[in-house]
Amino acid sequence: MARIQLRVNGATHTVDVDPTTPLLYILRNDLGLQGPRFGCGLGQCGACAVIINGVATRSCITQLSAVKAEVTTLEGLATSGGLHPIQQAWIDEQVPQCGFCQNGQIMTAKALLDRNPNPTDAQIREGMNRTLCRCMTYYRVQRAIKRAAGVMAGKVVA
Fold this sequence. Notes:
The chain is an alpha+beta fold. The protein is built from five helices and five strands. A hairpin with a 2-residue loop joins strand 1 (2-8) and strand 2. The N and C termini lie far apart (53 Å).
């Protein structure tokens, strides 16, 4: 066991755990954050995605000892002014069906738009290709990302 400090969504937390514990377990079990989900446990589906250093990172396979930077979870996207534009776009485009993958979809989309604020449809598909949705809402995800990109760029989106 080790005492490890972790910065999540702007707050510093100290946990006393085995350093090889997956980040996902700390986020959910110790910090009570419900955004990241346990999906496959192998880093393949994306349900557990968080953002570390601007990269959508699979928290189910990331050992706590490997985390050296701020972690942003779904809960950390909203601002004092309300939902993040990506979250609002998800609602406006009615993306979720079962909702299980939405954490991974939204966090991966956020990292994509941070890297490329005006992606083409092909770039969206490429950037999102490893984040799985068992309900197959991929076209709605693509529309929501385009909508969020427009809103974040200050363009009026109908």
